[in-house]
Amino acid sequence: MNTRTLPSPRWIEQPANQGLVLGLLGVLIFALTLPMTRLAVGTVDAPQMSGVFVALGRAVVAATLSALFLAITRAPLPRRADLVPLAITASGVVFGFPLFTSVAMRYVEAVHASVIVGVLPLATAAVAALLHRQRPSAAFWVCAALGSALVVGFAIQSSGGAGLALHPADGLLLAAMLCAAVGYAYGARLSQHMRAEHVICWALVIALPLTLPLAILTRPQVPLQSSAWWGFAYTAVFSMWIGFFAWYRGLAIGGTVRVSQVQLVQPFFGILAAVPLLGERLDATTLGFAVAVIATVFIGKRMPVHTRTSHT
Fold first, then answer.
1. In whole angstroms, how large is the CA radius of gyration of the chain?
2. So where does this one cross the membrane (predicted)?
3. In a domain, 151, yes or no
């Protein structure tokens, strides 16, 4: 009997496609972050955990898991040259993004916050193009800009014709997008020579001397709903840890500029999750925008992305 292993489909053998698959898996995990954060922090009328505790407490839990993982896998210590990039990565994805989003989510609905996330792929691509010496084609930028314009258009449409509300929380969310873009780009760069899993683990561990005491100081002092603890647990284990295993690996394999565009579908995955979790409404218009955005992702994936070469 022929026991030869059947070959994998050719499309998945290509690094760019492998990166996109892993990137999409990371996006699916991250898409639940805002709805789960909303559960954890509650609303203005029914507050739960503080946004600061959710952000720093989830980092402490993830850092504990990371320390165990690093010990089990016998991870080598980071090189001295990697310490600054790791600190920058931590500033973006351990501190900046979680803090800004967790504070903002008490004041805005998950659907509203999810559409703001639509600017993240363009921000990530811009940072990555500068950091990784990549030169996307004009057509690639057109697709990225079109996808971002679609999600902004969705936000304007969903505001009932009054325009995108400039709530202070929106400023926090936009700041969070910038932090995430920097953290993603530097983390992807480190993943070129470090295991992707080790990148986020070391970023969390080196941040622990700050996150642990601050989390203790801001811990909840009153009983909370069980849903708040479930939301916190998800952000700690999945959003802050497991999701980055797939995400950084995908960015490293497929290229940060290209794979980052998969994030364009994240707002709509987040909206779909908010329906059962938070009781928010899904309509045909939302689905229409989702289809249009997904189309720009697949078109943009076919556009050339070049790497600048240095001449010596």
1. 19
2. 20-40, 52-71, 83-104, 110-131, 138-156, 168-187, 199-217, 229-248, 260-278, 284-300
3. yes
